[in-house]
Amino acid sequence: MINKQAIISALREGKLQIEGRFLYGSNYTFLADCQYKEMHFKAVYKPLQGERPLWDFPVQTLSRREVAAYLLSDHMSWDLVPPTVFRTSKCPMGAGSLQYFIEHDPEVHYFTFTEKHRGLLSKVMLFDLLINNADRKGGHLLVDPDGKLWLIDHGLSFHTEEKLRTVVWDHAGQPIPDNLLSDVQRLINDLNQSSALYQPLQPHLSDQEIEALKTRAEILVKTAQFPLPPEDRRAYPWPLV
Fold it and tell me: At what angle do helices 207-223 and 178-190 cross, to 10 degrees?
């Protein structure tokens, strides 16, 4: 079990050194060594200047969305996203997101999951519905050496327009479990401008994007059902892994 608060402190203040670049993906993403006091671990560094401009997302906001996904997961106590911060000082390539690196077997992912991990997919699907994830590939679901499931790569999320593209449609058309629905209802109550969640989200999302998050949550509570894949647009990412 990782100590989130200690890792957050290390991500914010630790000494960073780039060890290499992840070659897959449109944006520059680096593996960094992070040292802070007695702590020493790997981190994933996504600098703003390494983001490729997209026609449908505001320029240099993808790293911010990575942080917003962590803040939401942490606030809801879902513990799906590794500790992530937005760092502006003493970064090798300038400001960007820094996320705790999850040690994992790349051959273990959505398409190779056992029934144990498939049992957690209702929460994964609900999380992606909330954040409006436009790029949930199978390889974005990781299992660490302790068997815990983690979700990564949330730069294409929180758009105000419907963008959901995911491989995780396992529960489409089924009722949302009551315990998860209760979590979403609490989220709605926490998405007001004076809440403990709204203010930390503001540096990373626009007010319109936060309001859209609240609207998506309200729709999920009202329907109490996982939606079916849309028929009027592409509902799956490419590549799938």
Answer: 150
